[in-house]
Amino acid sequence: MAKNRLSPQDWIAAGVSALTSKGPSMLRAETLARDLDTTKGSFYWHFKDVPTFHEALLLAWETHATAKLQALRELDAKAVSKLRLATEINAETGSGLNTPGTEAALRSWAQESDLARETIQRIDAQRLELIKDLLAEIDLTNAELAHLIYASHLGLGLLAKQQPDVSGQSLVTLVDLILALYEEA
User: Phi/psi zone of residue 77: left (φ > 0), alpha (ψ -120 to 50 degrees), beta?
Assistant: First the structure.
């Protein structure tokens, strides 16, 4: 076993990786300790128990997702630019908390975990509100457009996990199409 000291963030990163690659059943102290080549004692040094770890992992993702939304709201740009940027941000690939695969895994976990489901619902509500607000700023008040854009975001995230060639660019294209139709009207 390795003697390196791990932080709570190291455990959360390992949890996100395990959740994304193997599913929620792998979010256990013993499994994660084995993946990190350390002891369960290190896990319990940082987290009272596994449910506390689950809370920390979900809080990390929610904090990350909320910060992205807040940054968009505070951006000094027109609503059209913010809407396009929102779709590009949602189309991002990255690592850890910032991947379509991570969100798809969280949504899968939410099917069996009340805590995960509540976390997802809060972020969904915030994202949908932002999209509605941005559309309203450009006089597109049909709530169905916001639902369509967000449903596309969710669906593309699920597809991206199964088909790596699917990109978030499709969502950007959808928003550009809606905006083009709006500009023509």
Answer: beta
Give the pLDDT band of residue 118 (cuts 50, 70, 90). very high
Rounded to two decimals, what is the model's pTM? 0.86
Contact between residue 178 and residue 145 where contact means Cβ atoms under 8 Å apart: yes
Q: Can you tell me the distance from the alpha carbon of 41 to that of 43, in angstroms, rounded to the nearest whole number?
A: 5
Helices (H) and strands (E) in the chain, counts: 9, 0
Within 8 A by CB and 6+ apart from 179, the residues are 80, 83, 84, 138
CB 98 within 8 A of CB 89: no
How is residue 113 written in tokens?
């975990």
User: Using one digit for the tens of pLDDT, what is the confidence trace for 43-80?
Assistant: 999 999 999 999 999 999 999 999 999 999 999 999 98
Cα 146 off chain centre by = 18
